[in-house]
Amino acid sequence: MRRTILTLASFAALMAAMAPTAQAQPAPDRYCLQGRIWGYPGNCQFATYQQCQASASGTSAYCGVNPRYAFARQRYY
Fold first, then answer.
1. Keyword Signal, does the record have it (predicted)?
2. DSSP labels for 3-67?
3. Which of 7, 8, 35, 71 is the most buried (most CB within 10 A)?
4. How far is CA 40 from the centre of its chain?
5. Looking at residue 32, what is its pLDDT?
6. Cβ(52)–Cβ(63) under 8 Å?
7. Rounded to the nearest 5°, which phi and psi values hold at 18?
8. Do residues 12 and 39 touch, judged by C-beta distance below 8 A?
């Protein structure tokens, strides 16, 4: 009986180790703060357009789509 339990536990551990794990993906930085000071592509650390607009407020900068996000290869599942 012990041998069967040990065999089943070993098999379960092996299957758990081989199973693909879902890795946490960082939030994509979709927007870049662009302008004369920032250059191109600019400061690309904003996940939302509103965050970018808040940083651009009161400056001569504007927000644009991050080219790495816009031209990234599409993943098909």
1. yes
2. HHHHHHHHHHHHHHHHSPP-PPPPPP--EEEEETTTEEEEEEEESSHHHHHHHHTTSS-EEEE-H
3. 35
4. 21
5. 94
6. yes
7. -90, -15
8. no
User: From the CB of residue 29, how many other CB atoms can be counted at a distance below 10 Å?
Assistant: 16
- Euclidean distance between CA atoms 56 and 9, whole angstroms: 57
For residue 10, pLDDT beyond 80: no
Give the Cβ contact number of residue 64 at 10 Å: 18
Location of structure tokens 């996000």: 69
Place of tokens 């180790």: 17
- Extract the tokens encoding 72: 């990234």
Separation between Cα atoms, residue 33 and residue 59, nearest integer Å: 11
Greatest CA separation found in the chain? 76
Q: What is the dihedral of CA 11, 17, 19, 25, to 10 degrees?
A: 160
